[in-house]
Write a structure and sequence with these properties.
The chain is α+β, with helices and mostly antiparallel strands. The protein has 3 domains: 2-39 and 72-141 and 319-337, ATPase, nucleotide binding domain (Nucleotidyltransferase, domain 5, 2-Layer Sandwich); 155-184 and 257-316, ATPase, nucleotide binding domain (Nucleotidyltransferase, domain 5, 2-Layer Sandwich), CATH 3.30.420.40; 186-255, ATPase, substrate binding domain, subdomain 4 (Actin, Chain A, domain 4, Alpha-Beta Complex). The protein has 13 helices and 18 strands. The strands form 5 sheets. Strands 3-2-1-9-10 form a 5-stranded mixed β-sheet, with helices on both faces. Strand 2 (21-26) and strand 3 form a beta hairpin.
């Protein structure tokens, strides 16, 4: 009764606190914020100058007295104070007229985080203005977000490829039967493109350019029609601006190693799956979520490597945030899937 009364006067929120992007779901409103997890600060201080979209536009373009930073690395907090400032900014941005009470917050975290890392997330959210903080593993949130029947006594397999981590999990009866969290995901794909361009073409490019190339040319499996784009950067030898034409086959080669690690983690998880549940996956297959699910041909490659059907979620970028939002409506359900939530 008290929880219901408090909820009537606060805007409870679910947060997908990602390495690359932060999504916020407000109860009864849906996802109302999608912004990069980037903060611009004054050099040598933690004085915040810009957050989110405004800060990302500064990446690689700031003068010496401004530094654009990503406070989360590999799915966990790398800079506590800057993360707190970012969360406070986002929470204030989504507050509605029902804001005289601090919100109850559900935050998705990688399944492989340590207790120290969990505490850092919880304390950052509390310091940023949360009344209660509940943690939920990202693969569980993603599975709930896409509507998998996690309550069934049958296997559900989810692969969530975000910016900092790839979460692979087999779920049954409200719990993670087995999960793996590997710190290879979208950021690693971007870095592999940066390294390839430098090594093969002698072209120095930044994070933003690498991400754009990945989106436009990236694939995990040969495509019916290979394409090319012009990429601009700085010549490694002369130091002058330079433009080259890059083929999609080049970018697939560049990303081959991190993609191989992701596929290996899926195979390793399947090898640990109990026989009865493994049989369920022959029919149910694997569901892909996260930004990495949009990589062309990744579903085909995984099917070829595992022999299982692979389904890309309808809106893979929103799956984790949608899952945290659904949990806001069912506190008892939250306790079943996240028994170690901190309040």
């Amino acid at each position: 009764m008290i929880h219901k009364l408090l909820s009537a006067f606060s805007s409870d929120i679910g947060i997908d606190l990602g390495t690359a992007n932060t999504l916020i779901y407000v109860k009864d409103q849906g996802i109302i914020l999608r912004e990069p997890s980037v903060v611009a600060v004054k050099a040598g201080t933690n004085v915040v100058l810009a957050v989110g979209d405004d800060a990302k536009r500064m990446l690689g373009r700031t003068p010496g007295n401004i530094v654009a930073v990503r406070p989360l690395r590999d799915g966990v907090i790398a800079d506590y104070e800057v993360t707190e400032a970012m969360l406070r900014y986002f929470i204030r941005k989504v507050k509605t007229h029902r804001n005289w009470l601090r919100p109850r917050v559900v935050i998705a975290v990688p399944s492989g985080v340590t207790e120290v890392e969990k505490r850092a997330v919880t304390e950052s959210a509390a310091a940023a203005g949360a009344r209660e903080v509940h943690l939920i593993e990202e693969p569980m949130a993603a599975a709930i977000g896409v509507g998998l029947p996690i309550q069934d006594a049958a296997a559900n397999m989810i692969v969530d490829i975000g910016g900092g981590t790839t979460e692979v999990a087999i779920i049954s009866l409200y719990g993670l039967v087995y999960s793996r969290s590997v710190r290879v995901a979208g950021d690693e794909l971007d870095q592999s493109i940066i390294d390839f361009m430098r090594r093969v073409y002698g072209l120095v490019i930044g994070e933003r350019t690498a991400e754009e190339v990945k989106i436009r040319l990236g694939s995990a499996y040969p495509q019916a029609k290979e394409i090319s784009v012009e990429v601009k950067g700085r010549d490694l030898i002369s130091g002058l601006p330079k433009t080259i034409k890059v083929l999609s086959t080049d970018i697939r080669e560049a990303m081959a190693q991190p993609i191989h690690i992701i596929v290996d983690s899926i195979r390793a998880t399947l090898e640990r799956c109990p026989p009865e549940l493994a049989g369920d996956l022959v029919d149910r297959g694997i569901v892909l979520t996260g930004g990495g699910a949009l990589l062309r041909g990744l579903d085909t490659l995984i099917t070829e490597e595992t022999g299982l059907p692979v389904h890309v979620a309808e809106d893979p970028l929103s799956a984790v945030a949608e899952g945290t939002g659904k949990l806001l409506h069912e506190l008892n359900f939250l306790k079943k899937v996240a028994p170690r939530s901190r309040v």
